[in-house]
Amino acid sequence: MEAVLTKGLLSLPLNPKTRVFNQQNGLRNRLNIEKTRALNGFSSLSCGIGGEGFQKFQAINGVYKKERKLKVSCSAASAAAADGGAGYIEDVNNNNTPKLLGVEIATLKKIIPLGLMFFCILFNYTILRDTKDVLVVTAKGSSAEIIPFLKTWVNLPMAIGFMVLYTKLSNVLSKQALFYTVMVPFIAFFGAFGFVLYPLSNVFHPTALADKLLASLGPSFLGPVAILRIWSFCLFYVMAELWGSVVVSVLFWGFANQITTVDEAKKFYPLFGLGANVALIFSGRTVKYFSNLRKNLGPGVDGWAVSLKGMMTIVVCMGLAICGIYWWVNTFVPLPTRSSKKKAKPKMGTMESIKFLVSSRYIRDLATLVVAYGISINLVEVTWKSKLKAQFPSPNEYSAFMGDFSTATGIATFSMMLLSQWIFNKYGWGVAAKITPTVLLLTGVGFFSLILFGGPVAPLIGQLGMTPLLAAVYVGALQNIFSKSAKYSLFDPCKEMAYIPLDEETKLKGKAAIDVVCNPLGKSGGALIQQFMILTFGSLANSTPYLGGILLIIVLAWLGAAKSLDTQFTALRREEELEKEMEERANVKIPVVSQEGTTLSVEVGNGTLANGMSSSGGDKSSNSSSESTNPRI
């Protein structure tokens, strides 16, 4: 005979042995054991259940409730069948898996190396991000006006080219070989730049040709000509940008998703965000330390070259550490098994993505959030960096300020991440989504006001011991710090949460559309606006009033989209919760055991499943149905 064990229901064999079910000899007393007990009444157990086990029941007023999981021991069941038909059940709650601080050792072997990798990657990224701005903004014959042209005409094409090459390499290389193939060129370039390209930049850069082009084209083309003038610095700028998008987004998160389970990700991924800001704080201090080295150097020594060599040495060492950690995890940590049946992410071209965006109001509003952030932060950031160069023309002074800026950003973001959970719980998605544009608008108004009306308020600012320029630099720094901390702690979680209530097709296609169209548009949109303003009005300073007006329009559109999306998001969440509640009511199974002589009846859902039992022990008997009284629940 066979017994089929299911979750919440015990289906008896067609010809069972005679048993009398009463309160003393019922399932509760027969299963109320701690380790291994015999399940009488069955000659064998179905071993197809495997490690999933079945639920132990506790009898309370005739209704059996789940208590804890039990596992069928197939070997014990087979042996018991030969002894008279007793299967065995083992308690799987007594798990002897080694743990540390409540976390399994196997999980820690994955999470700790991933945390170290993430720390090293973001430590490098902060150093590279601060250094790239110093190189291209403070270089002779260049200014902050070069950044919009760099982002549009150099960075974007190289990013597209890299992704095409990466896709082709992924088809011919293993995952480990692909990781090293991408990482090693980054490490080699940054090492070579610090010790070869920068010391010999005067030899490599076509300064005379750039001077002739600038004289013939006019000062409005200072940005495009500067790309040619300092091409090696621009290459460093692009490689630093690619480190953030390629090594962080593609390599690290791809590897993390490969070796972690969903439950581990939900528990530990938020901690990576906190660790990232710790890396930001330490790397900011490192930049500040190397920037101040020039104070102890003798006359005639290029202090910035010395600082650059020290920082690039750290970048190379961190890069090698990342490769070492990656090798260790792949060698000593077993990978989780994955289901082979996964829905592939739809591949959408640019035109298909645009059509899909236009057709869905929900996705349109979500796309507006992404594009508006990219444009807004670029409009303010580039203007701020132009003022930063005017205040700190020396590369070391500029770099030291950026080190302090990165440290302050890390502290602010860390604090905002601790507050973000409270904001979501108390005020909800809508308020959290509006905080980032509100912060950016308020600080942006203060920043542009100081630039436009610095003269009339100069006496008041002078009483604080500052010039209008220095005040604008500090207000712009605060604007960037609070905007980025709000983005990391609130804007990004809000954006990802907005996908949750969508149906699977809209979720996948909407995310694909935003990845293809909106992210690049947001990053290059502000740069294109600034290029137009520079070429039209002659310089970034002359176009500042118009940039402030554009910022106001974009942020207001951002707030409108957030309000609209909040209404739709709330409605979809309520609809999803209602559907889930209805499904739970429709699928609920309530096992009911009643005792009428020797008859056991089990009620499931709206029907009754009854197996009658005759009083004759080993003889065959036909099944009979018996009515049971429905209990009040």
The string of secondary-structure elements, in order, is EEHEEEHEEEHHHHHHHHHHHHHHHHEEE
Low-confidence parts: 1-14, 16-94, 338-345, 597-633
Shape: globular
Mean pLDDT, rounded to whole units? 74
**Main sheet makeup:** 4 strands, antiparallel
Give the proportion of residues in helices.
55-70%
What is the level 1 CATH name of the largest domain? Mainly Alpha
Number of spatially distinct domains: 2
CATH topology of the largest domain, anyone?
Growth Hormone, Chain: A
Q: From the alpha-carbon coordinates, what is the Rg to the nearest angstrom?
A: 33 Å
| Beta-strand percentage range | 5-15%
If strands are numbered along the chain, what order do they take across the biggest sheet? 3-6-5-4
Number of helices: 18
Keywords: ATP-binding, Chloroplast, Membrane, Nucleotide-binding, Plastid, Transmembrane, Transmembrane helix, Transport
GO molecular function, one term: ATP binding
Transmembrane segments: 111-128, 148-166, 178-201, 238-256, 268-287, 308-329, 366-384, 405-423, 435-453, 460-482, 546-565
Organism: Papaver somniferum
Structural descriptors:
single chain; Growth Hormone, Chain: A; alpha+beta; 18 helices; 2 domains; 633 residues; 11 strands; three-stranded antiparallel β-sheet; four-stranded antiparallel β-sheet
Short description:
This protein has 633 residues and is an alpha+beta fold. It is built from 18 helices and 11 strands. The protein is globular and about 80 Å long.
Can you walk me through this structure?
This protein is α+β, with helices and mostly antiparallel strands. It has two domains: 102-335, Growth Hormone, Chain: A (Up-down Bundle), CATH 1.20.1250; 348-582, MFS general substrate transporter like domains (Growth Hormone, Chain: A, Up-down Bundle). Helix content is 67%, strand content 8%. It has 18 helices and eleven strands. The protein has helices at residues 27-31, 74-82, 105-138, 146-172, 175-197, 201-204, 207-217, 222-229, 231-259, 262-291, 303-332, 350-359, 361-391, 395-452, 458-462, 468-497, 504-537, 544-587; strands spanning 4-6, 9-11, 36-39, 54-60, 63-72, 87-91, 99-100, 103-104, 593-596, 599-604, 607-611. The strands form four sheets. The chain has a four-stranded antiparallel beta sheet. It has a three-stranded antiparallel beta sheet with strand order 9-10-11, with no helix packed on it. A two-stranded antiparallel ribbon has the order 1-2. A hairpin with a 2-residue loop joins strand 1 (4-6) and strand 2. The longest helix has 58 residues, at 395-452. The protein is globular. The protein starts with a strand and ends in a 22-residue tail after the last strand. Mean pLDDT is 74; it is low at 1-14, 16-94, 338-345 and 597-633. InterPro entries: ADP_ATP_car_bac_type. The chain crosses the membrane at residues 111-128, 148-166, 178-201, 238-256, 268-287, 308-329, 366-384, 405-423, 435-453, 460-482, 546-565. Keywords: ATP-binding, Chloroplast, Membrane, Nucleotide-binding, Plastid, Transmembrane, Transmembrane helix, Transport. Residues 605-633 are annotated as: Disordered. It comes from Papaver somniferum (Opium poppy).
